[in-house]
Design a protein that fits this description.
The protein is α+β, with helices and mostly antiparallel strands. It has helices at about 50-65, 75-85; strands at about 5-10, 15-20, 20-30, 35-45, 70-75.
Length: about 100
């Protein structure tokens, strides 16, 4: 797995992943007062299989959680990723509120 740095670029409404300073992929999004709509993920073919997509999905969803929003996921990659990382399922728009106690 590559050392992936993900940063939010709100002026472009996307999260960018960089590996050794080179753009390796991105997630496009749209924000509302209640939702972050994750619309598209793209990873440069040169970086596929190196954890870039996973790093992007995790960073985007961690940011959604930190903002206190829900995620409306249109992107098939992130939908599939959440299927393997159920700890993020509570962020999905329309998901039932957690009944777990701390």
């Amino acid at each position: 797995m590559a050392d992936v740095e993900v940063t939010d670029h709100p002026e472009q409404t996307r999260y960018e992943a960089r590996v050794d300073g080179a753009l390796a992929g991105f997630v496009d999004y749209q924000l509302t007062s209640e939702l972050s709509v994750l619309t598209h993920t793209e990873v440069d073919p040169a970086y596929e299989g190196r954890g870039v997509g996973s790093a992007l999905a995790r960073a985007a969803l961690d940011d959604v959680r930190a903002r206190g929003l829900k995620a409306l996921v249109i992107c098939p990659f992130i939908t599939g990723w959440i299927g393997h990382h159920r700890e993020y399922a509570d962020l999905l728009y329309g998901a039932p509120k957690s009944t777990a106690t701390d």
